[in-house]
Design brief:
CATH architecture of the largest domain: Sandwich
Number of strands: 22
Strand content: 35-45%
Number of domains: 2
Shape: globular
Distance between the termini: 87 Å
CATH topology of the largest domain: Jelly Rolls
Number of helices: 2
Order of helices and strands: HEEEEEEHEEEEEEEEEEEEEEEE
Oligomer: single chain
Length: 281
């Protein structure tokens, strides 16, 4: 019996060592290069993979990196800052050399505002997207992973168009209060591309069922083509449920499991997300 125990113990230890060697859990912090202040809610993930996270409000993050991704790209992105990326294998080596604590510095972008010439014009207002408020057909996040995101495509009828607001029809919300980040992406080759917001937009709601409306007028968002309005999971609240109204034959909706992951079209239904836009007559 003792010999059998030793054999089992040997294989268990080998398994644990192999698992450790194949994967590293990285702890780090993200800060502003110039001010040295922490940056909260930074998107961190392996590009094109469902491996990622979001830093907490103090800039701290934890991410597990498996050896199979050593040649892939680990990317840090935050609205208002320059993107930063590493080869995963090199990043892990740096982690080991710094005794298990990595400090990531992001540099702020300098945004030049175009001159605005105001002329008296006549405008028309349109609602685009999916206005469905069904409580019998609904959909939600595929996971509670930080950086998980979903949104609906807004097809504009005429350009340029100014985005006045974005609305999310909540079918079920069992959280007491929940905080999200709202994102607006250009559509490129049939998938979401560049985020057109110049600063992060956070929203907290306790709506259990109904429409969450976000006024975007102060952001002066002008689009020339279709865009995707999305809502992103940035705080780990565990459990509970959150679902949005859905409907058949709606505009397409997309989701991704975590930060920097690939977008996938939501099958069958389009989620109840819509926007008010204005066009020049």
């Amino acid at each position: 019996m003792k010999q059998l125990f030793l054999i089992i113990d040997f294989f268990v230890n080998c398994f644990l060592m192999t698992s450790y060697c194949n994967s590293q859990t990285i702890h780090g912090n993200v800060q502003n290069t110039s001010s040295k202040s922490p940056i909260g809610y930074v998107n961190i993930g392996i590009v094109g993979k469902n491996v990622g996270t979001v830093s907490d409000e103090k800039g701290n993050f934890v991410i597990e990196l498996n050896n199979q991704y050593d040649k892939d790209t680990l990317k840090f992105t935050m609205i208002g800052f320059k993107n930063l990326q590493f080869v995963v294998g090199n990043f892990k080596n740096a982690f080991l050399s710094k005794n298990g604590n990595i400090q990531i510095d992001l540099e702020q972008k300098i945004t030049l505002l175009n001159e605005v010439i105001i002329k008296p014009k006549k405008y028309q207002t349109k609602i685009i997207g999916n206005t469905t408020n069904s409580s019998s057909i609904f959909g939600g996040f595929t996971s509670n992973d930080l950086g998980s995101e979903l949104g609906t495509v807004m097809k504009i009828k005429k350009s340029p168009a100014s985005i006045e607001n974005v609305n999310f029809n909540i079918a079920v919300n069992k959280y007491d209060s929940i905080t999200f980040r709202i994102n607006i992406y250009k559509m490129r080759n049939g998938v979401p591309g560049e985020n057109i917001l110049k600063e992060p937009l956070y929203v907290t709601t306790n709506i259990k069922k109904g429409t969450l409306t976000i006024d975007l007028r102060k952001y002066n968002l002008i689009v020339e083509d279709n865009f995707l309005a999305s809502i992103e999971w940035i705080k780990d609240l565990k459990g509970s449920n959150l679902y949005f109204s859905g409907g058949l034959l709606n505009q397409d909706s997309y989701s991704r499991k975590t930060s920097q992951g690939n977008w996938k079209k939501v099958p069958t239904i389009g989620l109840g997300i819509y926007s008010t836009v204005t066009y020049e007559k």
